[in-house]
């Protein structure tokens, strides 16, 4: 072998030995030593709506009016849906008692809201907001 070839072959062979032996080593992960940094903790808030039916309807209208923008942004629409569902759960019995003829319209709007979030359709959220405004006006008259 030539002297230049020997000088190149020796580091190349040494590198090959290191890479090959490193590939055969085992890795152990100690899960007990794993900690979650405080930055990864997501705070939770509880939404507990309260008020008169008119106040709850105003809150429902506000949440629904913002929903389209949340769907477009792709952030926060699930949380808004949870708040809308909670509001509707409180409002529905009052409407069922006082204006039962409006229940199917409200149910249709709530279904449209759900669909807008599930299918990421901001147009459905806009349509729901417009229909909800009409239903709230009909409830108040």
Number of strands: 0
Main β sheet profile: none
Instruction: Report the principal-axis shape.
Output: elongated
Strand content: under 5%
By oligomeric state, this entry counts as single chain
Task: Describe the structure in your own words.
With 141 residues, the protein is an all-alpha fold. 71% of the residues lie in helices and 0% in strands. It contains 5 helices and no strands. It has helices spanning 3-24, 53-73, 77-98, 103-118, 122-140. α2 (53-73) runs antiparallel to α3 (77-98). The radius of gyration is 30 Å and the shape is elongated. It starts with a helix and ends with a helix.
Give the SSE layout.
Layout: H1 3-24, H2 53-73, H3 77-98, H4 103-118, H5 122-140
Quick summary:
By secondary structure, the protein is mainly alpha-helical. 71% of the residues lie in helices and 0% in strands.
List keywords for this structure.
mainly alpha, elongated, 71% helix, 5 helices, 141 residues
